[in-house]
Amino acid sequence: MIYKSRGFLKLNISMELLPNLASAELTQEIYDVYRKSDNNFFGHDRHWPSDLGHFLLSSFTIDEMGFVYNKFLEDSYSFAGKYEPILFRVLKYTPGCFIESHIDRASVNDETDHSLVLQLNPTDEFKGGIPTIENKEYRIQQGDALLYKYGEEHGVTEVTDGVRYVLNIRLSINQVVL
Predict the structure, then answer these.
(1) 156: which of 97, 99, 135, 166 fits an S-S bond (Cβ 3.0–4.6 Å)?
(2) Does residue 134 lie in a domain region?
(3) pLDDT by residue for the chain (178 residues), tens digit each?
(4) CATH code (residue 110)
């Protein structure tokens, strides 16, 4: 598979670092939607603790967070045209929170097969909380993102101080560009 992303040609990529994907203003807009949201998500609690690691998960619809993906689509070399966003989630990590190293697996009926993790707040606001993919640490900054496909081992180290916020977008491949 070959695709063009942010001006570089990529071959068979299962993980990609996307530096400066979002501006500080866009990350603030995302945080504002999160902060102002009620607790109703299709009749269920929007915010709940994860059973995979130790952090708080909050789900959002395309109507609530679609503006984020529309911004990504404005860049003609963006990865975004290759995927369809399925689910938007904000993850909140407080001291002691982490995600154990694990592998996401898509089953036959799953709608998603890729995940994008966007760092929302400045990294000087927390300690720890470093994302890992295939046992490699990625010290991403506010506005940076990691894009990876299911099957890649990944996790997040423990946050020891402050609060870390990320936006996780679950994606589905919608086209291949040759």
Answers:
(1) 99
(2) yes
(3) 333 344 333 434 578 999 999 999 999 999 999 999 887 676 776 666 666 666 778 889 899 999 999 999 997 667 888 899 988 999 999 999 999 998 887 665 667 789 999 999 999 999 999 999 999 999 999 999 999 988 889 999 999 999 999 999 999 887 544 4
(4) 2.60.120.620
Q: Indicate whether 100 belongs to any domain.
A: yes
Domain annotation covers residue 178: no
Residue 73 lies in a domain: yes
pTM for this prediction: 0.84
Domain that holds residue 88: 2-173
Rounded distance between C-alpha atoms, residue 163 and residue 93, angstroms: 6
